[in-house]
Every structure is written in C-alpha cells, then in structure tokens.
C-alpha cells in the first residue's frame, strides 16, 4: 500500500464512509487514478511521512545493528582471553563451522530433540484435551493442574526433573520402576537425549493441550449429535469429524511449539551438558562463546543459525498463512 | 515547497538532537565517575560460596574502620561469575573494582596485563605479612615475580572414607593409599545401596577433569609434554582414564554423568558412599550438623600411583582489575579481607569452623581453629604444603598448575574431552577412540603455545 492509498483511505473514513473504503476508480488501462490533493493536504502528508522517520530509524537500528555487528565479528579472529591476537580472519571461522563436525551433529541433535518432543507433546496434549473436554466434577481444578508444567520456569523444571524425578538413587521414576521390578536406570548417562525429550514433552504438553482444547470447544455439538444419529460410534466420529476439524489447530500447535523448542537450553545445560546427542544449536553456540571464548567462531555459528532459521521460518510462516487462508475460505 | 523543506530541515535537526541527547544520557548513566577524594564506593564481583557470604556479612567491620569506603557485593554462581568477569575484564568494561578469580585464570589474566600487580603493595604493607600466604598457593598466583592476586581461601584434594563401613568390613585405610588399594576397597564395599566410591563424572573441565587430571598425572601422564606436544592419547593417559571409568562403572555411583561435587557431597554425607575423592573444602559441610556422617569420616592423602602426592591445588582469590579507577581503596579492602585480622574476626564472630581455609600458614597455627577443625585441618595443611604446582606429575610441564593447564584454550579442550568421556561411561564409545579425538583437539591448543 502506498502512502497515497493511506490518505485516500483516511479521507474516506473522515467523510464517514461506512465499512470498507470505496473502490478507487480505475482508468482504462487498469492503472489507479490518483486523487487530486490540495497543497495543504500534500504538505500535511509530507509532515506525516517525515514524522515516521525516527521510528523507522530506531526500528532499523534496534533490529539490524546487532546482526551487522555479529556478521562483522564472524570475520574476526577473536578469543576473549587473548586480547593481543585479534584480527581479520576472512572465512576461517566459517570453515571451522563446516569442517569442525560439531555443526552437523548439533543440527541433527536439534532436529531429533525438537521433532520428537513436538510429536509426543501433541499426542499427549490431544489425549488430555479430549479428556478435559468432557464435563465432570472438578473440571476447572483439573485444567489448572494440567497447565502447571507450562507455567513453570524452564530452569526450575529441569532441576526438579534432575533431582526429584530422575535421580539414580532417590528419584521417583526409578522408584516407580523398582515397584514394577525394573532395575534402576541411569537416565543422564545412558539415555541423555531421551531425558531431555521427556522433560520437554512434560513441559510442552499443556501448551499443545490448550490449543487443541480450544479447537475441540469450537466444534459444534450439533454436528457430533447428527453424526451419532447417523450411526457413527465415538471412534468413527473422532476420526472422521473431530480430527479433520482439529487439523488446523494441530498445525498451529506444531508450528508455535517448534519455534519455542528450537531455542531450548535449560534442561541441556542443567542435566546433560551436551553429552550423548543433546548438543543442540543453542547449546553449541553457548559453548563456543562462553566456554571456548571464541567470539569470532561463535558469531559465525550465530550467522549460520540465523540464515537457517530464516529459511525454516519463511517456509513455516507460509504454511501458517495457508492455514489461516483456508479457514477463511471455509467460513 | 520552500516552507516544506525548512520544516523538514527543522524536523531532521530536532531528531538528530534528540538522538544525541539519548546517547549522552546513556553514557552518563553508565559512567558515573567518582573521585578518589570523596567517599568511594567499590564494586566486588564474587562467587556465591559460603565463605564469600561470610565476607559480605562482615564487611560492616571494614566499613566502620574506613568510613569513606563502601563495598557493594555482586554475588554470582561460579560459571556466571566466570562469564561476567571475563567479559568485563577482557573488553575493558571497568564495572568491577575487585574481582574474585580462580587460580586457573590468575596467571592468564596477569599475562594479559588485566590485573594490578599486588606484590609491591603487599610488600609495603608490613602488617599484611605476605610471607604468611601458603607457599604453593602464592606460587600459583605469581607470574614472572608479579603477584596478581591474593588468596581468600584455598583447597587441595583428599580421600574421604566412611570409618564405620571400613570397620564393619574389617578394612583399614592407609594414610597414603595407592589407587590400586582404593579400587580394591571400592569393589569390596560396593553393594546395591552403597557406592564403593564417588568420583565426579559430570562433564566440564572444572568438574570431571579436576579429579581425573590428578589421576592422569599420578599415572605418569599429562595433557602436554615439556614442549607443548599433546600427549592425550599416550599410554599413561589412556591407562588412567580407563582405570577411572572402569572403577566408576564397577564400584562407583549410579548415573555418573549427572554426578559432580554437589551430587557426591549429597551421596557421601547421607551415608550412601564408602569413599569420596574430592576437594578438601568438602570436609566443612561433612562435619556440619546436617550431615549424617559427621564425626565418622576419615581423611587421608589423595591416592597415588607413580608420584608421592596427587592432591590438586585451587584457590579463590581477590584481584584488582587494571581498569578500576579506585585501586587504592580496593587494595584497602582486599588486604583486609585476606588478612589474619579477618580470619580472627570470622573465628570470633561466626565460629572457628567457618574460617576460610588454605590461604595462610598462620591459620594452621591457630589453636582455636585446630580445635574446631581437628578432623581435617592438619591433613589439609600437610597436603597443601606437599603438592607441587610446577611439576605435579612424573614429567616436567611448561605451565604452573595441577588439575588444569594454564592456557586460555584449556577450558574448551577439557570441556570437549569430558563430554566425550561421558560416552565412555555410557558404553557408547571407547577410551582409545575418545582420547584420539582429544589428542587432535589438544594438538591445536599445544601448537598455539609453541
């Protein structure tokens, strides 16, 4: 939308036109007809445009300068502990990123941990949402209790899992297993990735559940009644009525969950310390910057991660818009 | 048109002025320069250990004696402190007037010219009695005859064992055990509920590799030889890591990758481990009222193989960054907090068992302290005076320091190798394979030193 359109719209609104602004008349060649503006209007318009500039400048400064600085650092050879040896490094840092071997491993760890946590939490979330969608005594209390894990700070959640749940000697999970006659499991040592996935699933199931519950509650009761009158049992009406209705909600849940889980850091730093396939991109970046103190290398990892995220995000966002547009078409 | 461009110019200049104003306001907020003449406010960054908390509690005594100086404590967890202070000092931020620095960083920072040489100040101050500082600690903090920090408290490592369990099994612990003897005891005493020995397995150069490096050194290995050639996949290093990981797998604690200092302290103080090889500073909490094993713990020298002594050496120290504008006032506080006067103050007001240990020889001549810490004070002193930070292992090494290599890249190297050793604990990888990878990483680090 150009600035001229804005004024035309504003003009229309000022004249008290109800609803959408009237369509602009089009010339023979389909080009827009520019409305004539008086000198005073033009001047007001210029002033308005000029007033926008500080905000745009601030927006550019705030969003782009840190990234530009990161790009600059990524071409520097800079270890914090060696102040004398700082200098231009060319593409050395990027070569280290791609030949070091850590990057691809970390990428696959990120995909495995994020992917399985999302799938599991959507499945559990769906199950709990179906249960909570029924009316029963204490429904409100149950809902609040189920949401609690999502409200907990990630670091606190990781500590609880480390000390109370998964501790090899006094943990509740191993105690539960011992009742079933299973030998104690060394969670962090033998199954580090599974440990992190468990914590994340526990924490994100309520989030998925909230979105899916909203979806279930927006489904009209009449449709389900009609289906049951037509002879569909609960399984068939779930598979053929409820699930298609929930599709958009599941897609939304997966997308938002993916964005949040990609940045996961706390359970890895507190429980597994990047061992056994849990070194995700965010943890790797932390290690390069704060353990390795290699600012240049960490910046190069950062730049690559941003590029990857932009690619993933643009694909994901396109999907998101598609979800919304199909919903619009249906109604 | 003309009126428009005048307006535009006015607007632009207004915007420019206001942005400059914002920038200036930001600068004045960050700076806040104070002169040496008026009242001085010092900022001290420190680690949130109990001994440091005591220092904060007692700073009122210092401020009473120095009415023109106030000291503000910024306490952080160890890793956060390391991050925050390294960033501030390396980028010349000048946020702190006094920093708490570990003995690993002091020589590196000193060589980078980041810290004030406290040697001349300490020598000039006769009441300070610089020669009373424990010699090995002082040595670890000195680079080319410059003393870049003074110790607040120091520690070595020793073997702690549960005397009741040993008596019940009819075993007796020698004063200077060997690792082979210890491994035998651990395998005998291991039951389903009790670990034979607790040894750190949590990845991190300061976690796993603090005890493991001392084991490597007493087995005759080391990270580098005298000429900075990496020796990580040498037979001695491999033997030591194999010994350590096998011992933990056979007779150690469950879930070693989760287990660091705190976890072992929990396990041992609840009576769930027969032995524990770790820092001498663990003795304080083990003898406290909350511990289930208080009074039942025996303390002996760190187990050895090829060397006579295998304890490590660590100290938390106070130093003054070169960027501080209040260095005189800072030294006033640093010299007070590390003085014998301060140690007496802790003893008389908070109790003698809370005295910061391992910094001064005179602490171990104080009858009140020796009485309160009778179980572990004499042996701590013996070990701290016996360890040799210039050559802790069998072979000479080109750096000063025991359980670490005093180069900036070591924390990264130690961290990565320790993460790979976690795979050995889990059986996902072999010691040989892991140490070959470590050798590659160490070679790059060593080459940078040549």
TrEMBL record, chain A:
Q: Which InterPro entries match?
A: MetI-like, MetI-like_sf
Cellular location of this protein? Cell membrane
Q: Which GO terms describe its cellular component?
A: plasma membrane
Keyword terms, alphabetized: Cell membrane, Membrane, Transmembrane, Transmembrane helix, Transport
SUPFAM superfamilies in UniProt: MetI-like
- Indicate the transmembrane segments per the record: 51-75, 107-132, 144-163, 193-216, 249-270, 298-321
**ABC transmembrane type-1 domain sequence ranges:** 107-316
Provide the GO biological process annotations. transmembrane transport
- Please list the residue ranges that the record marks as compositionally biased, kind Low complexity: 1-13
Q: What is its main location?
A: membrane
Does this UniProt record's set of keywords contain Transmembrane helix? yes
Record membrane topology: Multi-pass membrane protein
| Keyword Transferase listed | no
* Record PANTHER family: BLR7065 PROTEIN (PTHR43005), INTEGRAL MEMBRANE SUGAR TRANSPORT PROTEIN (PTHR43005:SF2)
Designated name of the protein: Sorbitol/mannitol transport system permease protein
| Native species | Cryobacterium roopkundense
UniProtKB/TrEMBL annotation, chain B:
Q: Which domain of life is it from?
A: Bacteria
Any Pfam family from its record, for instance, is: SBP_bac_1
Note the InterPro entries from the entry: Bact_solute-bd_prot1 (IPR050490), SBP (IPR006059)
* Keywords assigned: Signal
Q: Quick one: signal sequence residues? A: 1-33
Is Protease set as a keyword in this record?
Answer: no
The yes or no answer to whether the keyword Signal is present is yes
Tell me the protein's name: Sorbitol/mannitol transport system substrate-binding protein
